[in-house]
Amino acid sequence: MFLGEFQHSLDEKGRAILPSKFRKALADGVVITVGMEKCLFIIPKTEWPQWEDKIRALSLAKRDARKFSRFFFAGASEESITKQGRISIPNGLREYAGLNKDIVIIGVSNRLEVWDKDSWKAYQKEAEGSYSDIAEKLLF
To answer: How far is it, in rounded angstroms, from Cα 76 to Cα 72?
Structure first.
């Protein structure tokens, strides 16, 4: 399980250092793909089949299902973690998420999310105002 928020930087080659507490769980490799709200999802290869199954189960007769499936899989890239704990983030994915130098990596249960630092701050500010209302609708 992935939890927490970590401030990092991209190097000149578009690589990020992953939090050390997550590296063992990611040792078999990851799939990086487009997330929602202009972040990236880092999904452990061990979790990827469940994501794939869910998306494949969507009805191809529905236009939104086709759009989502295409976007999600076309943006995906299999990556390995280096011995130094770094991961390369492909240029197209960096562009999608607006990643520059300063990034935030957050643990969200079975995946990590990578955000541009300023985008994450803006998202947090917007979301925290409705956090209680959302929790009430979804959980209670």
So the answer is: 6
